[in-house]
Design a protein that fits this description.
Layout (H helix, E strand, L loop, with lengths): L1 H9 L2 E2 L2 E3 L2 E3 L6 E5 L6 E6 L3 H17 L7 H17 L1 H12 L3 H24 L3 E3 L6 E9 L2 E5 L5 H6 L2 H7 L2 E5 L6 H13 L6 E3 L4 H10 L5 E5 L2 H11 L5 E5 L4 E5 L5 H13 L9 E7 H15 L20 H16 L3 E4 L14 E4 L6 H4 L6 E7 L2 H9 L3 E2 L1 E5 L3 H10 L4 E4 L14 E2 L2 E2 L4 H6 L2 E9 L12
Parallel strand pairs: 1-5, 8-9, 8-11, 9-10, 11-12, 13-14, 13-19, 14-17, 16-17, 19-20
Antiparallel strand pairs: 2-3, 4-5, 6-7, 7-23, 12-22, 15-16, 18-21
The structure holds NADPH dihydro-nicotinamide-adenine-dinucleotide phosphate.
């Protein structure tokens, strides 16, 4: 793998846009250069697309949808294409994982796992393409049969962030395609490589030209053109709450449907009766996975008061063994932060937390830090009003609070603007069920952390967004329902008397 990485450093990949089945650069020749955050070396270039490029991609999607070839295609054929893409992802897994690692700085092993899971999602969506169906009502009287048709919603804009580039795209794109939609994808300007590589597999698998268009570029103008467009029927946006709000405002133009996965501040609840070793490990995993740059990161630890100090010390001890370093080194669990702006944001929020009274148990701003490596950090004596308890930090930072009763734990867990995920550690079934039922979050893990399955839906409560991705709900998200009222036999009643 190091050979392949060195070859990439020697000859960075020139990625291209994919519009109407054609690979090309930006209309004005503009280019975005991407350096590996961990190595500071150029690893690829993407087109810096213009508004005109975005409009061309939207037009290609609109034309393809209105022509109806994919929208009315037999589900079995849609399934074949999606399955073929899954196969091509697996076939190219090593290269995809390497590009993800170099662009994001996530450890290579993690990138490999995400690529394989992305292939699973394409396989699952292939099955869903054949299962999608509507309903019928045979109870409306002798002369009326009711049909409920499930139809593709139309042109979908998918805008994705930089933290899990291929995975987040694969939670959405194959499901929209399974439903029969046409799509415009805009990946993050920092990590567009694997989305643009995926375009080649779509073409190879025989997806008709124009059904999926993938263009790189910055949020403004490319993302903005998508959310503004009256030719786009739905936007699936994943990213910050700030841009999520802008998406909601822009959607008013043509009242487009939105599916939003936004920020999080997910709690890990640790009860004294749990398996403490498993809980320490799970809490660390939830807080530090992907360097904490994860929307469902378990960034608040709520621990039962009578074990709080001991648990905190065990956390700090175990964190000493968590290797931070070159993401290409198989021993590394933590790579570099995505860019300087994000690094500075993490440092600033930790400093603000300390100013407000939190104590650093371990980690914090390294004095002589080199590059963008931010160490796993535990903050103790946090209170619910502090910025480190309320704001999404998007770094490997864990804010610790304590509780005395399950009711208090649930109240603290829900004391957040967000509601994306929660992790519960207990061996008491009633406590586990009470937490699962009363915590307002889209996903709850009990005695486990972060395992994902294509069958289960994901999404947020409160300001973490709306809509659900993956599972059968994920395909349905990209559909509209239509009722057909079918008169059986001759209509004998007349509206106009005497007719
Ligand atoms: P953004 O919300 O800015 O980026 C997400 C996507 O939206 C990117 O593709 C971005 O483009 C695009 N975008 C930016 N501006 C617009 C716009 N006006 N119209 C349409 N699309 C737009 O997130 P950041 O990458 O800046 O991260 C900032 C913070 O957001 C993080 O610190 C974290 O708190 C949160 N975040 C949450 C994520 C999650 O999974 N829930 C994922 C990523 C971030 P581009 O970046 O290419 O310019």
């Amino acid at each position: 793998m190091l050979d392949l990485a060195n070859r990439l450093f020697e000859a960075p990949i020139t990625h291209q846009n994919f519009i109407a089945g054609v690979f090309n650069g930006a209309a004005d020749g503009g280019v975005i250069q991407r350096e590996s955050p961990a190595h500071g070396r150029l690893v690829g270039t993407y087109p810096a697309s213009t508004r005109a490029d975005a409009e061309a991609a939207i037009t290609a999607a609109r034309d393809s949808f209105d022509a109806g070839h994919w929208a009315f295609e037999y589900g079995g054929e849609r399934a074949r294409v999606l399955r073929d893409v899954a196969r091509l992802i697996r076939q190219n897994a090593e290269e995809l994982a390497l590009v993800e690692t170099l662009e994001t700085s996530k450890p290579l092993d993690a990138a490999r796992g995400e690529v394989m899971f992305a292939a699973e999602l394409w396989d699952y969506a292939a099955g869903a393409a054949r299962m999608l169906s509507g309903d019928s009502h045979n109870t409306l009287g002798q002369s009326m049969l009711g049909l409920v048709l499930r139809e593709p919603i139309g042109v979908v804009g998918i805008i994705t962030p930089w933290n899990f580039p291929l995975l987040i795209l694969s939670e959405r794109l194959p499901f929209a395609l399974a439903a029969g939609c046409s799509v415009v994808v805009k990946p993050s300007e920092f990590t567009s490589g694997t989305a643009l590589m995926l375009a080649r597999y779509l073409k190879q698998a025989g997806l008709p030209d124009g059904v999926c268009n993938i263009i790189a570029g910055t949020g403004d103008p490319v993302g903005q053109a998508i959310i503004d467009s009256n030719d786009v029927d739905m936007v699936a946006f994943t990213g910050s709450t700030r841009v999520g709000r802008a998406t909601i405002a822009a959607s008013a133009g043509n009242i487009k449907k939105l599916s939003l996965e936004l920020g999080g501040k997910s709690p890990s609840l640790v009860f004294a009766d749990c398996d403490l070793d498993a809980a320490v490990d799970g809490v660390i995993k939830a807080a530090t996975i992907n360097m904490g740059e994860c929307c469902i990161a378990g960034s608040r630890l709520l621990v039962e008061a009578r074990i709080a100090e001991a648990f905190q010390n065990r956390l700090a001890e175990r964190l000493e063994d968590l290797r931070m370093g070159d993401p290409l080194d198989p021993a590394s669990r933590i790579g570099a932060i995505i860019n300087q702006a994000q690094y500075d944001r993490i440092s600033e929020l930790v400093r603000d937390g300390v100013r407000e009274g939190a104590d650093i148990v371990c980690g914090g701003d390294p004095e002589n830090h080199s590059g963008l490596f931010y160490p796993p950090t535990v903050l103790a004596n946090v209170t619910p009003d502090m910025c480190v308890a309320r704001e999404e930090i998007f770094g490997p930072v864990l804010s610790v609070m304590s509780f005395k009763t399950a009711d208090e734990a649930i109240r603290l867990a829900n004391d957040s603007d967000f509601g994306l995920a929660a992790y519960v550690w207990t061996n008491d079934l009633s406590t586990a069920l009470a937490c699962s039922r009363r915590i307002r979050a889209g996903r709850v893990w009990v005695n486990s952390a972060l395992q994902g399955f294509p069958e289960l839906p994901l999404g947020g409560f409160k300001q973490s967004g709306n809509g659900r991705e993956t599972g059968r709900y994920g395909v349905e998200e990209y559909t509209e329902l239509k009722s057909v009222h079918l008169q059986v036999g001759r209509q004998s009643e007349r509206w106009v008397e005497g007719a």
